[in-house]
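Researcher: Go.
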Amino acid sequence: MSKLYIVGIGPGSKDYLTKIAIDTVENADIVIGSKRAIDIFDNIKESIILNVKDLSEKLELSVDLAIEGKNICVLSTGDPGFSGVLKPLSKIAKEKGLDLENIEVIPGISSLQLAAAKNKLSWDEANIMTFHGRENIEDILKVINNGLATIALPSKSVKDMAKFLIDNEVDPQRKVAICERLSYDDEKTIKTTLDEVSKGDFTYMCVMIIF
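Model: Structure:
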């Protein structure tokens, strides 16, 4: 029976791939994912590149190919269940009649986990939030002053997030850690303030920790 595998590939470095992720990818008939995700694997039989603009189309294709009898592997950066493709892919599978029993999820290491580890932060004692793909980021205001650190994936940029928090009366001198390009050779963590972040420039590959 064919399977649709949703594989978490971790934050981006080969070092954070799990053995089961590697084995699943190598045994799949077709692997679908972003170029950045596909490039970290050495042995892929056949691949299909997706990007933000054709994401829905390629996810639908993955389900169609699984229904046709192919073993399909869809790559999801980080963990599929957190700002990953599990939610949209499960919805498409249901609409197209692919039984969820034919879907297997291989978890991965989220950049949030890695950010917490780099900062020696117990992440079961933190607010965990993602704003990827969301324009409405007001939810962070409900927890930002509850006494816990907040680990967040910003919607657009950490700079915009910092400006939003300051505009909503969060102390500009609030301590912040920006974890940029985690797991890559050029990764860096900057510990500073909201005010400094609001004036800085960072890549989109960032995790923000507000203390």
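Model: DSSP finds seven helices and ten strands in the chain.
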